[in-house]
Specification:
Rossmann fold, 7-stranded parallel beta sheet, 18 strands, about 40% helix, disordered C terminus, pyrimidine biosynthesis
Length: about 550
């Protein structure tokens, strides 16, 4: 973040940046993140440069220590920032590189305010939510929005801000007040508010109900913010009379009432918004007519429609610890999607709880055990993603062993790479007590250590057995990539390639896995050159 002396310069640099705020009402989980990303895609297609900010009102300073069951995936940025998964959506949709400061939390704001108070920056004044906390929020927004995220040097034309949670949540009140003040100080031609709400259908009546949205807008207006556009989530397209009713009771022009109904895949959402002329409403509101042109989304349209036309699918066994909440592996899922589509295949992810594969489950829950193994054996490739703790480790080792012995394409990420090392050590080298220091610090065969990760004492033994360490860090001590010889595709990586995958630039390790899976199941797959090739696993990293 900028130091206090830099605030004026940041504010001046951000003066030319316009703001689009996305809020949500009625219930959480409506897709504000996808809406924000999609609005950004359409504006970028108009020739505007776009940056994004996600506001999370929780007291944690970042998402790094939060359980995947609690908050879904922790997305990791290029600068090492551990942030909300919505920033991953922004990066994938907009193809930008964000920083940790693009994720604002209550914890970060209060930490900064308290540090300033301790240094005496407030000159002995009573430190209060208004104005000190709200001023900090505004300064943070304007400072971050002035930082280019697309490789250029000038600030972006538009900053899309997503306010997490639901309007009316007590923890978001300081942010609502700060955004109200920011809206007032910037003026209507620099600030546009899109409110995402729900239009449900009651099963018995079958009528699209507007009351939840009406009440949500009323609450938002009571807090000093008036929506310029409504983005209404629904299962089916809104009928005309519903839009007119919402316009009348929410004081929003009917042409500014957008409908984001359910779609075959999320790549259609920017196209839905484009078709409803969201860009025209925002550009008019923000007086950007001289900078923006018609949206150019031919490539995006082709991408969305080509997915719908795919006929063949590939079964991918994802053996993990947090399979009850699929958002825990959101970037892995997206990377598999990008790679599969690039190979003209639809991903069919088979979710397998690692603990269900374990021998103990055969006794405690035989049906779950049998189903897990049936699913694993019926898949064309196996992926073990990252995770923490020893729960399910035995099941992951069994999955890696099955992939190795049966020549099933395998990709291990972070923990998945360590699993391949432990499995090989136990079942090939005969080190039955081989383990990770994280799981068993007392074992004499600590083949995986906290640093440098793979114990150097065992590297030569493992390589002689066929598990080659083909990638390492600059020092040559930390092993980053393993490859099993005499196997169609058996790769483990310590890093997280899923965070770098993009719809038009799939991650190479994932592409290699899908190509190998297609060859394994005998299904034609096209790579970027339009034909199948013999796969050299190491080349997928080049």
């Amino acid at each position: 973040m900028a130091e206090p002396g830099e605030d004026a310069a940041a504010a001046a640099a951000a003066a030319s940046t316009k703001y689009v705020l996305i809020t949500g009402g009625v219930v959480s989980g409506l897709g504000k993140g996808v809406t924000a990303s999609s609005v950004g895609v359409v504006l970028k297609a108009c020739g505007l440069r776009v940056t994004c900010i996600k506001i999370d009102p929780y007291l944690n300073t970042d998402a790094g220590t939060m359980s995947p069951f609690e908050h879904g995936e922790v997305f990791v940025l290029d600068d090492g920032g551990e942030v909300d998964l919505d920033l991953g959506n922004y990066e994938r949709f907009l193809d930008v590189t964000l920083t940790r400061d693009n994720n604002i939390t209550t914890g970060k704001i209060y930490q900064s305010v308290i540090e300033k108070e301790r240094k005496g920056d407030y000159l002995g004044k009573t430190v209060q939510v208004v104005p000190h906390v709200t001023d900090e929020i505004k300064q943070w927004i304007q400072s971050v929005s002035s930082v280019p995220v697309d490789g250029q040097t000038r600030p972006a034309d538009v900053c899309v801000i997503e306010l997490g949670g639901t309007v009316g949540d007590i923890e978001s009140m300081p942010f609502i007040e700060a955004l109200r003040q920011l809206s007032f100080s910037l003026g209507k031609d620099n600030f546009c508010l899109i409110h995402v709400s729900l239009v449900p259908v009651l099963g018995v009546v079958g009528e699209q109900k507007t009351k939840p949205t009406q009440h949500s807008v009323r609450e938002l207006r009571a807090l000093g913010l008036t929506p310029d556009l409504l983005a209404c989530r629904s299962a089916q397209p809104l009928i005309g009379s519903v839009k007119e009713k919402l316009s009348q009771f929410c004081h929003v022009p009917v042409e500014n009432i957008l409908n984001i109904h359910d779609v075959p895949n999320l790549w259609h959402v920017p196209l839905i918004l484009r078709n409803q002329k969201v860009h025209e409403a925002i550009i008019k509101q923000l007086n950007l007519g001289r900078s923006a042109g018609p949206p150019e989304l031919r490539d995006w349209t082709q991408m969305a429609e080509s997915y719908d036309d795919l006929k063949n699918s590939v079964k991918i066994a994802l053996v993990g610890k947090y399979t009850n909440l699929t958002d825990s592996y959101l970037s892995v899922v997206k990377a598999l999607l990008h790679a599969s589509v690039a190979c003209s295949l639809k991903p069919s992810i088979q979710w397998i709880a690692a603990s269900d594969l374990e021998d103990a489950t055969a006794t405690s829950a035989p049906d779950a055990h049998a189903k897990a193994w049936e699913t694993l054996k019926g898949s064309s490739c196996i992926l073990i993603p990252g995770g923490f703790g020893d729960r399910g480790i035995s099941g992951m080792i069994l999955a890696a062993k099955y992939a190795r012995e049966n020549k099933v394409p395998y990709l291990g990420i972070c923990l998945g790479m360590q699993i391949s090392v432990i499995e090989m050590s136990r079942n090939v080298l005969g080190l039955k007590d081989a383990d990770s220091e994280e799981f068993n610090s007392e074992t004499p065969s600590r083949v995986v250590m906290y640093m440098p990760e793979v114990n150097p004492s065992f590297v030569a033994m493992l390589e002689n057995a066929g598990l080659h360490f083909v990638g390492c860090d600059e020092s040559g001590k930390r092993m980053e990539v393993v490859e099993l010889q005499d196997h169609p595709f058996y790769i483990g990586v310590q890093f997280h390639p899923e965070f770098k995958s993009r719809p038009r630039r799939p991650s190479p390790p994932f592409t290699g896995l899908i190509l190998a899976a297609a060859e394994y199941m005998g299904t034609p797959a096209n790579n970027s050159n339009g034909h199948m090739e013999v796969i050299d696993p190491f080349l997928v990293f080049c």
